Every structure is written in structure tokens, then in C-alpha cells.
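Review form for a predicted model. The reviewer records the input and the model, then writes brief findings.
Reviewer: anonymous (R2)
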Amino acid sequence: MKLENKIVLIIVISIAIYASFLFFSDYNSISENINYFKIEYTIPILLLVAASWIPLILKWDYLLKKNSIHIPLKTTILIWLSGSALSITPGQVGELIKSQLLKNIFNIPRSKTAPIIFVDKFYDLTGAIIASIIGIIILDIDFKLIILSIITLGIIFFLIYYRPVFEFFLKKITKLKFFSKYSENITESYEIVKNSTSYKTASISISLSIIYWIMIASSVYLILLAFDIHSINFLQSIATYPASVLIGVASFIPGGVGVTEGSLAGLFVLQGMDISLALIVSIFIRIFTLWFSVSIGFIGLKLSGGLSLSRNFKN
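Model under review:
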């Protein structure tokens, strides 16, 4: 199946999932809750969501330069946006198209750029886990979840920093057809990862990731205000959104669709929100935070020439 058809299928399934959420809610309640949304918040929300991409783009550009890859800032932005278009693929592996674009445009080996993409996503995950830990403390959720989060981070760091384990893991992954073309040289890949995870680089990258999560959670808080919801404060928004996204990513379902919305709604309900309102708000949040970035990403994919390239980009 071509990538375009897969994406269309994902969108259709997403609509079906959202429709099912609404179907099992009270229709009158749905109409009433949607009418609560203040349209004047739309532009500020979209601007804040777009602004939240800045630290991620800076992190992507920083990691490239850290590995002696210097490309024009405009192209850096377009390639990053191209990856966002395919963030709805399972586990966001579609973002590897950034590696293929760098090879096609600048003839940079995939073995040099694919590890950077994985490290980049690792820093995003780390930022989300840190934000979630803060959230677990704020929401006074079971302390065992904090221990689980710390253990998860420890395992990830071990997989990256301990070379024998990293190379074993990489060899296993590159046996899969999809990943085989992205690590032609395992030794070089490890050196790229090692160079991208120095103390200074990690500190800067994780800080930028945390800034992103704070900004995107701020847009979630604005969405809550647009629905005239004041029972959930700003800190609770920072606590809730990253946790739901992590659950969605862990599910390996494309875009975490259904899982992220469901967990987000569940966390809102735990904080006292009505279930019908929680489902509506969760869907609106995902439209603004996920589907807006995906749609803008397709513009970047078109401008970077990645749209034609993606026709041969198979999962």
C-alpha cells in the first residue's frame, strides 16, 4: 500500500474513532459543550502551537550542526516540517523521511542522519517523561508511576550509552526491511549517537524538549479556557498532556489516535470534568496539537520535494 493511501486510511480511521467517541456520548450534551468553545481563542491557540515548534526546530538544527551537518536554516525548517507530516505513522517512524531528504538534497549518508533522528526523538521522550513525573507529583498519582518513569529513562540511557548493547540492538533493527537502508555503517551510527549525547548536548536538547512540552501544554490550557473550564489549572495541564501522549506513543498505534484521546479524557475525568465534556475537549486538543502540525507538515513535505519522495517511502 502506498504511503498516501496509508495516511488517508489513518485519517479515515481517526475520524471513525472520534465519531465513535461522540456516538457514545449524549448528543444534546455534545452540542451544548461544543457551543461553549469561544472562537476568538482559535488564533492564539494556533499561534502558540506553531511557536512550540521553535524549540524542536532549534534542537534538530543543533543536533545536525553538532555532527558537522550545516544546511540552510530554511531547508532545516522544511525538512523538520516534512517529518511532522509523517508523525502519525506507528511510533513516528515515518519521520525517518528526514534522513532520506537529507541524502537526496545534500547527499548526506543515511547512516549519519538516521541516528540523529532517533536521538532527537529520545530527547523528546525524555522531556515528556520529566514533565510527566512533575505531573504525577502535582496530581498526586500513585508514586509507583514515578519509579516506573525513572526506570524507563534509565533503560533508555543504558541502551544508548553502553556500546555492546546499542550495537546488538541496532543489528537486530537493521534486519527489518524498513530500517535496513538507514544504518549502512553501524560503527559510524554509534559514533554519531555518542557525539549527540554528550553531557552538554543532552542538557541543551532536553531543556529545549521541556520548553516544547511546557509551550504545547500551555496551548492545551488555552483550549480549556476556550471551553470556559477553570477547574484545571496551568500546572495540571502541563501534568496531563505529556502523560497522555506518552501512553499514545507506547501503544504504537498511528498517531496514538484513540489511545491518547481516551487517556487524556480519562485524566480530565479524574480531575473532576464531566465525561462528555472531557471527550469533546480531548478531540479539540488533538485537532489543534496533532492534526494542525500534520497539515502544516504536508506543506513542508511539498515544498521540500518530499511529497514525491514519500510515494516510495514504505513502512
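Findings: The radius of gyration is 20 Å.
Further findings: DSSP finds 15 helices and no strands in the chain.
Recommendation: see findings above.
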